[in-house]
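Appendix B. Extra example for self-study. Work through it before the problem class; the solution is given directly after the inputs so you can check yourself.
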Amino acid sequence: SAVISQKPSRDICQRGTSLTIQCQVDSQVTMMFWYRQQPGQSLTLIATANQGSEATYESGFVIDKFPISRPNLTFSTLTVSNMSPEDSSIYLCSVGGHRGVSGANVLTFGAGSRLTVL
Amino acid sequence: DAKTTQPPSMDCAEGRAANLPCNHSTISGNEYVYWYRQIHSQGPQYIIHGLKNNETNEMASLIITEDRKSSTLILPHATLRDTAVYYCIVRIDSWGKLQFGAGTQVVVTP
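Solution. Structure tokens for the complete assembly:
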């Protein structure tokens, strides 16, 4: 399966600033997704990162707050803009469009980027 | 995708089998049952999936009832490293996104 590297792994940010998270995959993948996991909560899908076009955002998430780039089939970035303490979360990159050994249509996840906003 | 219901938490003794239930009474005929788990400070990891038949791999077994309205993930010999949140997800076989519910927090104790 694909190997995903996320940077930074963690960061402490000041209120009002923006931070860009990078997701690098070791192979070309069709689908890339960004998730948020707030403290003690499950994962919530932010958006699907589309190569060569604008990302598709889920309800409750907007491009101005979470701009996403996907310049090619192995790389994507998520920016968290104008951060507030409520944005303190783990942000995870996920890739799909490939089948695991079992033949399952699986998603592979990065380890996540833990952001703390003061 | 069909909604699933899981118990919020379970305890399991090390070396014993852990049986994790999942209800999915509104599952459609073309929807699969997937299980993922998330160990603390890691991203979710695929475990197993099935459509109708029971499935087994090196990690776990999946038992799906005949009416497909519920399933059970079995960890045959739980170890401390199996402590994680386990997510049951029902979806069609597509390249698309996953929607996660609350999952079951499993704690394996010595």
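Self-check: The beta strands of chain B are 9-13, 18-23, 31-38, 45-50, 55-56, 61-64, 70-75, 84-92, 104-109. If your reasoning did not lead you there, revisit section 3.
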